[in-house]
Amino acid sequence: MVLASVMELVNNAWPAALLALGLGSLFALILLIASIKLRVVVDPKIDAVHKALPNIDCGACGFAGCASYAKAVVTNPELLGKCAPGGSDTSNAIAGILNLQMSGSGAPMRPVIHCRACEQDKTYFADYDGIIGCTSANAQPNVQACAFGCLGYGGCVRRCRFDALHIIDGLAVIDYEKCTGCGACARGCPRELIEMVPFTQDIMMTVACNSKEGGKNTRTFCKVGCIGCGLCSKQCDLFTTENNLARLDFARYEPSEAAQTAMDKCPTGNIVFRGKNAPAPREAGQKPAASAK
Predict the structure, then answer these.
(1) N or C: which end of the chain has fewer CB within 10 A?
(2) What's the CATH number for 109-279?
């Protein structure tokens, strides 16, 4: 009786089992065909480029991260050289992967801050008691006398993901040992004081001021501001003076006697060195050395 029941159960079940097996095999075949037809072939160069990048996803290249940039540069080699943290070494490595010849290695881009005024060098109209942030403080006309200088409320510091910026004595200071050149700090400064420049030398000379005020006002507002006297441009053709402000041609900069003379003769000492192990600028109010007169 039991055996008969079992046999009847088997006889009734095997068609369903056979149908399930057939449907399972059919679906497996469909999935196999779909995986072959729809598979995305990943160019091995993309993976190789991704490995050559710093993989810090800083966004300096203009893409969401290193993976996005790797895919983009393989598709469009004209994007080569956009990785600021990697610099020329990374660009050359990617060029080798893509079988391209770099026209020039290029200097790494690093930020310089066009201000050197510390707390005691600035003139203030009033105490700022609003939201602690450069954007908010910049919206107030009377925070400090100089409308062009560093506000010192750390907007750039909060932008930096690599702990390469700090507010020291009311002034943003870059730690070039940690700086990757991602450019986030430059994009975050409401006064556009931070400029990304080609570091053709380990230590770069720069004019640490951004004031367009006339010389008389600048002297009143700041102890170390550029007064637009043009003395530096008379000493060295790397400097130009326009709108009461001196600027250095970073792309052509090389250490020279003329450039050093321009720095030494600067009346307010706002021509300074920036970079790893850069020497400290002369103190505010200190007159040029007698040999530089």
Answers:
(1) N
(2) 3.30.70.20
